[in-house]
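Moderator note: this is an archived Q&A kept for reference. The question asked for a predicted structure of one protein chain; the sequence and the answer are reproduced below.
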Amino acid sequence: MSDAVIVAVITGVCAVFGQWLIVRNQSAKDAYERGKRDKHLDDTIQGLTKRVEEHNRYAKLFADLSGEIKLMAKDIAYIKEGKG
């Protein structure tokens, strides 16, 4: 084999190995970034879930109070009719 062919083969092998290293490092970096993003999304979803549960608890309390207020209004109307 001539010297030019040997140099070309060595250059090709080095180029392929270099590209492989670049791709591997970029993959690792992408996986790390994706993990950070997923953790942030999980934290955000947990926070929103907590807020929704708190809202639902207040909505239930308000519904219960609303029913009690209606009963009080009826009692007040009944008392006013009895004294009037």
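Archived answer notes: The chain has a mean pLDDT of 92.
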